[in-house]
Amino acid sequence: xxxxxxxxxxxxxxxxxxxxxxxxxxxxxxxxxxxxxxxxxxxxxxxxxxxxxxxxxxxxxxxxxxxxxxxxxxxxxxxxxxxxxxxxxxxxxxxxxxxxxxxxxxxxxx
Length: 110
Fold this sequence. Notes:
- By secondary structure, this protein is α+β, with helices and mostly antiparallel strands.
- The protein has one domain.
- Helix content is about 45%, strand content about 15%.
- It has five helices and four strands; from the N terminus they run ααββαααββ.
- The protein has a four-stranded antiparallel β-sheet with strand order 1-2-4-3.
- It is globular, with a radius of gyration of 13 Å.
């Protein structure tokens, strides 16, 4: 599976979240540890997003975690999200990629 295609799938989930897709919201709310959603934000750790991907799309089961993580950081999510008024940012930085909590939500203006 090509990494770009994998990124497109994750990007599509992000867009569905922003559109408040009921099916995706239900999946996220039922998923459990490492993923939290509210009215405006999707908070996740990278390992939790990987687990969600493996449980949601069979093609991710063929991708190991290090490759998934690389794909996330090489795919231009924020560039593509720019027109939506949303971004991926770090919500809580624990100085370790796998422990930090990431946020999909409205662009934060410092």
